[in-house]
Model the fold of this input.
Amino acid sequence: MKSKKKEATLVFFPIFCIVITFITENVEMATSEVTQETIVKDIKSIKPEQAILEIITNAIDAWAKNIHINFTQDEISGIDTITFQDDGEWIEYDDIKSIFWNYSNSTKPLRQKETPSQYCWKKGIWRYTFSKIWGNAIWETTFTKWENNYSYTITMNHSILRDYIYDEDTYPSETESDTGTILTINNVDSNTINDNFIKQTAIPQILKQEGWRMILLWVRIFVNEDEINVQEGIEKEESKTIRKWGKDFSVRIVKWKQPISWEDSQSYFINSQGIETHKEHTWLNRWSDGFGHSVFVKSDFFDNFLFWNWKVIQEDEQKTFKKLKREINQLLRDFRRSFLKPQAEAFTTQLIQDGIIQTSGTSPIQEYSSQFMKETIEELYMCEPKIVGHLFHSLKVLNYRHIVLIPIKSLICLQ
Done:
């Protein structure tokens, strides 16, 4: 049996090598043949606020903790220049070609295991999105090597996106500047990019998509030195400390004003150092009722909890974690009910206005039955708002009012 496996390996290994070589050569060829038209087509659907978001996302991906957006607006000409400065990791000078030339690709997924939510990579096209704001882009990067800081500059023009300019022959000079990157975009489209646009469109977009990472990764974003308040993206939140099993677990549940597009509703487990060690979907993740939420759980219990190797975790720790999740699920149920209660009441109010629920009767029994029906429908709505909402809407459209009342009454009698 072993000899047959060995023979199969000897036969297929050369074929495997040929396939890998073919793929690599074709990927390199495809990369080298990317044109201005290809890039423009790929970023065509990106809006200016999304371009700003892409720049912010890339900075957070690079471990930035402080991001500054600065601009000045002239009353006549508007904004001419906008800068994005961050203190994140840098692209080293020796890696410029491999990164800037490697279109629609990124090395970030290779580092995803370092911390689950650090990267929201976007196929490596972030550096071209500046063209949606217009003008020219200048990256001034300061990096550390041999215990010294060095700076270099890269320039790109929106009309020639495939080319980038930097000094290939002279190694960057030493500098006293702090490490990080400053992206300056000149000749901004002032018809679109102005103070109102930044405050009313760009900032809400940042809060919608990156609010959860601003909390999780302790990221601070400033616009002309005014810090963006993450609370502006939160509709409601609740914090509680669970003290059980000899441990303290700080739980923070956040209901976002707008559901996050590229991140599901997740529970994030954080150690005593404030570092995320694990994340997983909440049990409400797939409920399509607009309850976009995040759960942040912090405890020293997660300092040495090896989520990636469940087999080595002691049995009592496994049981504690499972009990913790049940506690969190109960908190989520209660939190969600407080969120859906006003919606349920508004829903039954509409049913009363439509005549589906009768609020008055000729006898106390009828009045009691109507009230009981109203409360029952509200309870059903808070369990499955989408299904109950669609059911009553469909039956209302078909004018099946009396058929609606029969099964609901039967349900009440059966209870």
In short: DSSP finds nine helices and 14 strands in the chain.
